[in-house]
Amino acid sequence: MQMKVAFLGLGAIGAPMARHLAPHYTLSVWNRTAARATEFAGETGCRAATTPADAVRGAAIAITCLPTSREVESILDGEDGMLGAFGRGATLVDCTSGDPATSLRIAAKLAERGVGFVDAPVSGGVSGAVKGILTIMCGGDEATMARARPILEAFGEKIVLCGPIGAGHAVKAVNQAMLGVHIWSLSEGLVALQKAGVAIDTALDVINSSSGRSNTSMNLFPERVVTRSFPRTFRLALMDKDVRIAADFAREYGVPSPLLQLASELLREARRELGEEADHVETVQVLERWAGVQLGNKT
Ligand code: NDP
User: Fold this and answer.
1) For residue 68, how far is its CA from the centre of ligand 1 (angstroms)?
2) Structure confidence at residue 297 (pLDDT)
3) How high is the pLDDT of residue 1?
4) What distance in angstroms lies between residue 152's CA and the mean position of ligand 1's atoms?
5) Among 11, 27, 150, 197, which is least packed by CB within 10 angstroms?
6) Euclidean distance between CA atoms 178 and 63, whole angstroms
7) How far is the CA of 129 from the centre of ligand 1 (A)?
8) Which of 66, 131, 279 to mutate for ligand 1's pocket (most ligand atoms within 8 Å of CB)?
9) Which helix (H) or strand (E) holds 117?
10) What is the pTM of this model?
């Protein structure tokens, strides 16, 4: 008999992750907007659950992939919540890019009912999820991790236990802070270079053969800014949330972190200007507006 697995949150990255589970497990999916779950179930042959409780009942492993830890916590309690429906010995694997403090609270509530918890945020974007080659950074104990790992292998390639509960979220937040800083600093630099008469593709060509290069300069900007295509794969609102987690995390540990605090403020401002649906790479358009140029145009 196949193991029962539940997946909650069929968003931009959740849906392609869940798709890898459907052929191998008896899968139940739940999504706040029910139509998405029904459509997904129709396409993959899994079951669309009506509530979070309905999804996790009888499941050995449940995976959540929601915007923040707050939404995960919000589907825990109450008649429709996961908490009362989990069987003893089940495990909640939270692939949300969440925050360590909330996850510790969630894990404590689950532990009272004999349910394990692993935080397991992912990296690699929607394309990595589609290909099943995500990097997954985990927090939890070895025994719970051993139960979660085979499931995570369905959509992950590099799966690392980083430390106790919350460690996965913390590593993810720091990674996202680096991404936010790279996008912002490259935007400032390229806008200034263009004003000085240097073409953006010339600048990127040189930077990408030099020590300042990053995934942002090597992939994101050539594919999205040079072409002005700006596909919406990862919302700026989510990156803003991630960098704020990193900034709060550093502050909580008493680490002087002026750059992280400033990056968090700037990305919050970009989110205000561009709105909830903007992609993270669209951040460059804030700098373009402020400077009165558009990258790629010889103005
Ligand atoms: P989306 O915004 O595309 O999807 C969010 C999902 O959460 C949807 O299923 C949505 O349901 C659900 N949701 C939103 N609010 C609530 C709520 N109050 N209660 C219950 N469910 C809710 O996000 P992504 O899929 O892009 O991201 C999910 C997580 O993965 C985030 O933490 C993000 O930071 C992380 N991540 C995303 C990456 C990406 O490239 N997209 C890359 C790496 C990590 P509904 O359909 O009803 O709106």
Assistant:
1) 8
2) 55
3) 77
4) 18
5) 197
6) 26
7) 14
8) 66
9) strand 116-119
10) 0.95
